[in-house]
Design goal:
The chain has helices at residues 10-29, 33-36, 48-56, 60-78, 81-106, 111-130, 140-149. The chain contains seven helices and no strands.
Length: 156
Amino acid sequence: MLAGMRWNHAWLCLGPLLAYHLDVLLTLIGQPDAYWAGHLDQAREGNPFPRWLMHQHPLLFPLAALLWLPTFCAVILWLPARFAKWVAFLIQMGHTLAAGSWLVELAPGGYLAAVPFLYLSVKLMEWTWRRVPSDWPQDRTRRVASEVQSPVRGGH
């Protein structure tokens, strides 16, 4: 599996990793004392799957989070750039929005903390995307445009 990895895509993992870590950290910090006292039904999480994990056992969510990290990084490193960028975008934005919702609730100033975080996440995504070359054929647009403009010449 390592042979098929595109290591120059590692830049695309940076944004998702940072947003992911903050999301997981804030999810754990945001749990009420009752949850940590053993009342697992008191788990607070908007995503149904992690919430279900948290209802089963307090260590199941952190364990699943540890497994999710190498999984999404491996997928980003394995896919061609045109698809890896979209996967990175979806993962980063999902975790950014989730962490942002926790910031609204937990951080001093609420939205005043969440909005700059969202902005910085987008800027980080732009920065990392520029570091990964596209794998689309460079002349595809010109070739398609010339085919549309020049009609096929038949046997006149």
